[in-house]
Amino acid sequence: MNDDFPKTAFIGGGNMAQAILGGLRAQGVPASSFVVVEPSDQARERLLQTCGQEAQPAPDERLAACELVVWAVKPQVFEQAAAAARNWVAQAVQLSIMAGVRCQALQQATGAPRIVRAMPNTPALIGRGIAGLYAVPAVDAGARAQAAAVLAPTGSLVWVSQESDLDAVTALSGSGPAYMFLVIEAMVQAGAEMGLPPAQARQLAQETMAGAAALAMQSSEEPATLRERVTSRGGTTHAALTVMEEAGVKPALVRAMHAACTRARELGGG
Ligand SMILES: NC(=O)c1ccc[n+]([C@@H]2O[C@H](COP(=O)([O-])OP(=O)(O)OC[C@H]3O[C@@H](n4cnc5c(N)ncnc54)[C@H](OP(=O)(O)O)[C@@H]3O)[C@@H](O)[C@H]2O)c1
Fold first, then answer.
1. Ligand 1 centre and the CA of 225: distance in Å?
2. 143 Cβ partners below 8 Å, 6+ apart?
3. Which of 49, 55, 118, 177 could disulfide-link to 36, CB 3.0 to 4.6 Å?
4. Counting atoms of ligand 1 from 1, which one is nearest the CA of 74?
5. Is the pTM above the cut of 0.85?
6. 122 lines ligand 1 (CB under 6 A)
7. Residue 3's pLDDT is what?
8. How far is residue 84 from each of residues 7, 61, 78, 110, measured CA to CA in Å?
9. pLDDT tens-place string over residues 89-136
10. Does the beta carbon of 121 sit less than 6 angstroms from any atom of ligand 1?
């Protein structure tokens, strides 16, 4: 990474911005490539300590030099933050990582036609996330590549072809870590009930989840085939999966994700 990295603004210098900036700085992108607006003294100090990145408390004309503007504030403060920055950002590509703020709302509030929306998840904070991205047609391939380069430190990226697909991404990978944590919780509880020390049960559960995911990613087989391969009739896995089937675990998970998708649509304004 290098000097031709696009000059990029971050509006909001909290956890996500820090994770992204920390990754980009570690790749060798100079601090001079960034303009960061962050009103909190504490958050500015943290950025300086962790990323060697100066930030300013309020937007000003320095934003006008930026090709990309990353919106990393909570959705509730977006309108107010956009009103303060609007004079200097309309020429740039806007890259929003805020949940539920639609392209149309981003265009209206910033005055910019070129919008990219990303839906990351919390493992982004340790560089192991996966984000869905959507760009409006006005964003060309070069600008898409710039947006992808900015988000690269968060993990994997998947482009979707219509904005409404981001609601499905929200339901799958956005909220997904919580589903995985629930499974880990249940495995740890059962492990402890069966007599394992909780710390050991937790290690066994976590590494099982990470290992199963890694195996699924490396394999060309369907997940169902991988599952069947470890399920011999009359064996222990079969005993467990029979209980899960009787309890309707799989259909409940599918219903849960539909509920998350519906909620994402409602929060985005329909
Ligand atoms: N964390 C995740 O894993 C994750 C995953 C998916 C999506 N997201 C999205 O990413 C966005 C940022 O999340 P986060 O976890 O980084 O939140 P965060 O840690 O709260 O960071 C937001 C920062 O923006 C600052 N801020 C508030 N008003 C501002 C303004 N007018 N101008 C500039 N900065 C302002 C906040 O300062 P104060 O604290 O002083 O208010 C805070 O430091 C959210 O929209 C969230 O939905 C996050």
1. 41
2. 68, 93, 114, 116, 135
3. 55
4. 45
5. yes
6. yes
7. 57
8. 20, 11, 10, 10
9. 999 999 999 999 999 999 999 999 999 999 999 999 999 999 999 999
10. yes
